[in-house]
Amino acid sequence: MKLRIVTAMLLAAALLSTEITHAENTAPPAYPLDAIPDKMPFNTPYGAPIPLQRAQALVQAAVAEATKRGWAMNVAVVDSGANLVAFGRMDGAQLASIAVSEHKARTAAKYRRPTKAFEEGIQKSGFNYIMTLDDVVASRGGIPLIEDGKLIGAIGCSGGSGSQDEVVCAAAAGTINK
Q: Domain for residue 126, yes or no?
């Protein structure tokens, strides 16, 4: 019995050592966090809030895209102040994704960037500090709505994989973001 426990512990230690070595060899490339950009990134000015009728049309555009693909989604549209304006839950859409779709939309509006930027910042660049920022969802599927160079709101989709959520949101946002 003791031999089994010792063998199991040695095996676990060897696996852990291998995993740590693998992680060290696959760490994201260093990025100079002290670099100072010439211009402020994601500096789109806030505009007038998206009206209800347009927000509802965006929900319908997203639902049409999701229906075409056979995906059940939750879709939220917020205004330029990140307040919910319109929401749609397709039949059979995952219940947990109701709040997630709203959170993605709020993140995209508050930070004036797609939520994919946060996902990539963590996964590709190792910017783990992003996880400490208030109200951030680091999962694609939240897209700002820009009209005449101003942010009028954002759309968030959830219910599928991140890439599915993003495709549905992009199809709807494409009706405004030109």
A: yes
Domain limits for position 62: 52-173
Number of domains, the chain: 1
pLDDT in tens, 35-84: 788 888 888 999 999 999 999 999 999 999 999 999 999 999 999 999 99
Write out the DSSP string of the chain.
Answer: -HHHHHHHHHHHHHHHHHHHHHHHHTPPPP--TT---SS-TT-PPB-SPPPHHHHHHHHHHHHHHHHHHT---EEEEEETTS-EEEEEE-TT--TTHHHHHHHHHHHHHHHTS-THHHHHHHHTT--GGGGGSTT---SS-EEEEEETTEEEEEEEEESS-HHHHHHHHHHHHTTT--
In a domain, 149, yes or no: yes
The answer to whether position 31 is within a domain reads no
* pLDDT band per the 50, 70, 90 thresholds, residue 96: very high
- pTM, full prediction: 0.79
> The domain spanning residue 99 has which CATH number?
3.30.450.150
